[in-house]
Amino acid sequence: MKVLMVASECAPFVKTGGLADVAGALPGALAPLGVEVKTVLPAYPALFPLLAKGKEVASFGDLPGGPGRLVEVQAEGLTLLLLDAPQLFDRPGAPYTGADGKDWPDNHRRFGALAQAAARISFDGLDGWVPDVLHAHDWQAGLAPVYLKQDGRTPPKSVITIHNIAFQGRFGPHVMGDLQLRSDWFHPGGLEYYGDVSFLKAGLVYADHITTVSPTYAREILTPQFGMGLDGVLAGRASDLTGILNGIDLEAWNPKSDPALTATYGLKRLGAKAKNRATLAERLGLDPDHDGPLFCVISRLTLQKGLDALAGALPALVAGGGQLALLGSGEPELEQAFRDAAARFPGKVGVEIGYDEALSHLMQGGSDAILIPSRFEPCGLTQLYGLRYGTLPVVARTGGLADTVIDANHAALAAGVATGFVFDDVSVTGIEGAIARAIAAHANRDLWKQMQAAAMRQPVGWESSARDYVQMYETLCA
């Protein structure tokens, strides 16, 4: 089985969120199951060093936005097909935005070119390598199934994965010509979306199959509450929609060997977490002698993540005997709210605005619990890291959070399978209640260790999900 993946980011090369982690880890998980993956990825400046090490395997003179070429290179265990189009991707800033934080005005051309390059090689192949399936990820790759269908030749099968339906790649109707799209497909049953073009909707309409990143999220996005305006489109394709849970890279996230930790540990050496906590306390200015639980947050600071409600719950967290360590960036008012909390509760709340990969590992290794009060969460990865590191998740009951964390209710505790704390009401009051439950459980050290052991034994890798992907590919091709 040969699969051509199309993604706008891929860990460890370029990352803004969970999409990159999936694009970076899934090919390696599929390889032992007989699936050979090549990944089409934009050649951003961070990837320029790889271009010199690779081999040009295709060139295009007329992509949306101008010419480009594909350079194949092996890196970090992946086979990458880098789309080298400097006029589109040689820019400072993040993958989708400039230094001012605003979207690049030609993002439709940038990611239209990515999708079209992938579609073209899906037909023509590369040195005899022809994919059985084109697998597009999120809106940035959403036009790839469209280009397959409008080519006229018999296309390979196509799949699109929704990592977050809130991001839809919406542009005015004037982009149709730029993108070389069929004008007669601009209608509500095709590319048109409330007068605009939506890359994500296009992929949902024209792909042969749709997946998303957890079973619960697959059900949620069929409803107006979570479908973000696309629930009607998805309801029409419900029989072609599958929820497959994300996994994590067990090599990169392993408390027994993590180089970012002050002290590595496993189930039999959980006491070593205290050394990581001491390092974390020094880094963030927290009281090192504090006896209550240390909660962490590693997140984009947005309303989606429920962090406005968490900010309101911090006085109760501190009064109850907890500490908080936060790493993240996002909406300015939320950044300021947590800075203010750190000033108000010195030694109890420590905040670092920004992102630091090594610090995120240390926070998992040194904290007792991780807070994820999301209003919606397609899958979530930080709770999986928390389970792996014995850092018990405190999560809202939504999406992949609901699928991966077993609440510490009476029955689960009696059976010894509870792995965290799940709550329904994403409000100050609801979060305060969940935090209070966690603080009470932490006071019973034997119970806490029992929950840590259950969490660390829970499978969080890609094995099961990779098998689900293979089954989906095989069914599609059959």
Automatic annotation (TrEMBL):
Pathway assignment: Glycan biosynthesis; glycogen biosynthesis
Record-linked InterPro entries: Glyco_trans_1 (IPR001296), GS/SS (IPR011835), Starch_synth_cat_dom (IPR013534)
Domain Glycosyl transferase family: 288-442
GO biological process: glycogen biosynthetic process
Molecular function terms from GO: alpha-1,4-glucan glucosyltransferase (ADP-glucose donor) activity; alpha-1,4-glucan glucosyltransferase (UDP-glucose donor) activity
Catalysed reactions listed for this entry: [(1->4)-alpha-D-glucosyl](n) + ADP-alpha-D-glucose = [(1->4)-alpha-D-glucosyl](n+1) + ADP + H(+)
Source superkingdom: Bacteria
Starch synthase catalytic domain ranges (all copies): 2-235
Record's function text: Synthesizes alpha-1,4-glucan chains using ADP-glucose.
UniProt-recorded name of the protein: Glycogen synthase
Organism whose genome encodes this protein: Mameliella alba
